[in-house]
Amino acid sequence: MHFTSFVFILFFLAFFVLYWASPKRGIKNLLFLVASYLFYGWFHPWYCLILFFTTLLDYFIALGIGRKILSKKTLMLLSFIVNFGTMIFFKYNDFFLLEIQNALIQLGIDYQLTTLHIIFPLGLSFYTLKKFAYILDVARQNIVPETNFINFALFVAFFPQITSGPIDRAQNLLSQIQSERKWSRSLFNNAWPLILMGFFKKLVIADSLAVVVDKIFTLQQPSILLVLIGAFGFTFQLLTDFSAYTDLSRGISFLLGFRTPENFKSPYLSITPTDFWNRWHITLSEWLRDYIFFPVRRLCLRIKSRASKQIALIVPPLITMLASGFWHGTGWTYIVWGVYYGLLIVIYQIAGFGGAWKPNNRFKLAAAWMLMFGLIMFGWLIFRSPSIEWLVNIGRHSQFVQSSNEIFVAVASLSTITGYIAPLLIKHFVDAIKKDAIRNWVEPLFYAVALTATVVYINSSTPDFIYFQF
Amino acid sequence: MPARYQTHYPRELGPEFKPQVRQDWREKLETQKAEIVLMGDSVLREGIDPSQFKALTGEEPLYVAIPGSSSALWYAIIKNNIAVSTHQPRYLFLFFRDTMLTTPDYRVTGKYFTMLDEFASPDDTLIVQYAYINSMNWIEKLLEQYVPLYGNRTDLRNSIEYRLKYTLPFRLLRCGEVCVDQAIANVFADEKMAFILKERAVSEAEDYLYENKNLDFNNQVSRSFLPEIIRTLQEKNVQLVLVQVKTTRFRSGNRPFLLNKYLADLQQYAIAHNVLYLSFSDNKRLKDAYFVDQIHLSDEGKEVFTTLFSEAIKPIIDTP
After folding, report:
1. pTM of the predicted protein model
2. Would you call A409 an interface residue with chain B, using a CB distance cutoff of 8 Å?
3. Residue B13 touches partner A, C-beta closer than 8 Å
4. Do B184 and A412 count as a contact with CB atoms less than 8 A apart?
5. B70 near B94, Cβ under 8 Å?
6. Could you read off the pLDDT of B255-275 as tens digits, one per residue?
7. Is A328 a catalytic residue?
8. Looking at this predicted complex, what is its ipTM?
9. Mind telling me how many Å the CA of B54 is from chain A's nearest CA?
10. How high does pLDDT run on average in chain A?
11. d(CA B161, CA B158)
12. Do the Cβ atoms of A456 and B156 come within 8 Å?
């Protein structure tokens, strides 16, 4: 069941009525939990079993930590093994087996390993991080463990977030689950622009860009010009696709009385890699920062060596971004992409452009932005490439333009891509308008056009959101 | 607005076909006076070599191999070209894979609609019903009838895409619609696609045929063009032969239960309706190595399949 599907709209309408008709919080939460499992099980019923058993285990582990049944470290380790073990098993089994197989072939051993071809449960990467953050927060005594299983299970399975985030924290979501919720007009007022923009970005922009991008990335050996255009298109396809999901998720949450976090703050206006990760997939960045970067940095600073400061400058970003690469997918492209960002952060920091660096004049600002945008685009090129060999082969053997036909295709593709991303720029300027008198007619006009375009671009089939696969 | 633009309100469901119907296949059939028609999509084009077929059987077939075609287009050509021809063939061999014959809404939108529009006329209400209306839910039906913006969305979208795609190349490089389309066809030609990526794209495009709904033969058959194809050809005394081709999507032992059941039901249905059925799906002489992707054969495979097919139909076409 996708957010943009007909089945979901019917499901949501029915649930919405029942939910707000329920008089008590406990019934609302139970209903929400059932709906979340129904939503999740719609993709594949057995997904619910993994979700339920790992939720149950983490529920008891958190209680165990609170009641000091076993040592914190033992229980945290148990949760880590179960959560990440499950994720690694489902996500990487074929990848590791194939890599072992390739290594054996290199060594001259012809032994056929059986790959399992297990379907990766949607959203597993997202709710694994969500649950483990909860365990760590309980262990750090940042929160008290939830004793009501329904509340905790709803926190994990919360259907607006389960397949593609945002990776919400217990401090925010669980506390709202524990509180009373009342319908008010402001919920609707907050929800509709998000829902409209979610549909618009997904159906009009992302899916249209995908047509051009997918074609270029299916070529055996495209020219460098075409690859750059493909990367440019993918840069915006990914942003619109993923942020559309977040917008829909947040809009739906608002309609159900929940305020959930933002995930994007104009990430392509970043001027440094650190700045980018503070604006892109914010809930994941914060998770990585709080649970990997800071602990690794603290560990590095504890090393009794003259070089401990240098180590603390280099190692934490590399490990954090490598983990981010692993989290994003199975394949060398994701790992190289993670290392690439790790190195970028380190290089920027060594050069003195880390943290809250801000250029002191407009020329420097423009130059920093252009450089960073190019680096972001190159990062997405690695990320989207079918394989590292494919990318290396293009770098080594492709010409900038291989035929005059490519110039025609390049211009047609570029004009299509820029045509579809133009509304994003317009929205950015609309949001920046400060005068109410102007904003009051420009903003509704923009939404009217977005709604019209969305109706025109509605398709019977609903392609997956890209982040579903992570 | 509907009055201003002279459109029906409420709008009729489904697309409207142009009144002009191409008659290429009727004309070819009348000129060639072929006794055998081979019909199918790119799998036929990459699977059967008409000259080799002629050499092996002595028959020159009418070779209707249209890449991207599907049951809706096959039905339109049979009804509006073959059946109205002054010359009727003895046999029509319809090449299909798995559930294609009873998935009427497969390949009917976007560029496939343009292909279908060339051979269907406004009188083809059955095509509109089976290929489009039957797959709409009630919300879609309401929107299509009562919201002109939604009902005309395909035209509007095409017009936006046309402007985005062709305006700039023409203004900058004097390369118009034909020039851009030729350049796209050249740059993205089949042989320039990466094999594994193309394989994945082919597999994804075929996924629809294997959805549970489409694997239920008994539910799908009455909503499909198959009964009408059989009836139209039988009225004209043309013997229909269904030819199930081999694919590498599922090895014979690994074929899902529902697909096996579907194929058994289809075969039974064919026999019950005096339709001949040839299956090459488990033919061991068609090795996996002959396939360039899940469904298409290499030149070597094409030669083998043409031989196999010619051998298999010899007893049929030799019958007086």
Report:
1. 0.87
2. yes
3. no
4. yes
5. no
6. 889 999 999 999 999 999 999
7. yes
8. 0.85
9. 36
10. 92
11. 5
12. yes
